[in-house]
Amino acid sequence: MQLEDIKKVGVIGAGIMGHGIGFTFALNGYKVMLHDVNEKILSKAMNNVKMAIKIFVDGGLISPDMVEAALSRLATTADLSALLQYGFDKLILVRHPEFLKNRAIGNWGIGSADPFYRGI
């Protein structure tokens, strides 16, 4: 798989790093599905994204048009099966508690040798 083949990215873990990773991909033109175990965490993640956006726009790093486009490409879900059905080209795992609990991504039906998986 080449970089230009990647169009959709799944991010498991919307905490300290995950929300920023997801937003960075969205800002750079990728469709992103951000997953975490509940809506409360996802809501906090989106609030963190909005705080970062304000800093980036106020600092002249990104334009309001870029923000609107990026947010239109960023979706969230607490439903793991919805993420798995999303059809992502690349999966990024950000030290997700459910992953640690299951001890193996294989318990979710994803093999770590698959070309779309990348753990952080």
Characterise this structure.
Helices cover 42% and strands 18% of the residues. With 120 residues, the protein is an alpha/beta fold. It has a single domain, classed as NAD(P)-binding Rossmann-like Domain (Rossmann fold), CATH 3.40.50.720. The chain has a five-stranded parallel β-sheet. Helix 1 crosses helix 3. The longest helix has 20 residues. The protein starts with 7 loop residues before the first strand and ends with a strand. The C terminus is likely disordered.
Key structural traits:
120 residues; alpha/beta; Rossmann fold; 5-stranded parallel beta sheet; disordered C terminus
What's the helix and strand layout?
Layout lengths: L7 E5 L5 H10 L3 E5 L3 H20 L5 H9 L1 E4 L2 H6 L4 E4 L3 H6 L14 E3 L1
Parallel strand pairs: 1-2, 1-4, 2-3, 4-5
Helix pairs in contact: 1-2, 1-3
Please identify which CATH superfamily we are dealing with: NAD(P)-binding Rossmann-like Domain
- The CATH topology name reads Rossmann fold
Tally of separate domains: 1
Distance between the termini: 19 Å
Order of helices and strands: EHEHHEHEHE
Rounded mean pLDDT score: 82
Can you tell me the overall shape? Answer: globular
| Strand tally | 5
Which architecture per CATH? 3-Layer(aba) Sandwich
Protein structure class: alpha/beta
Total of helices: 5
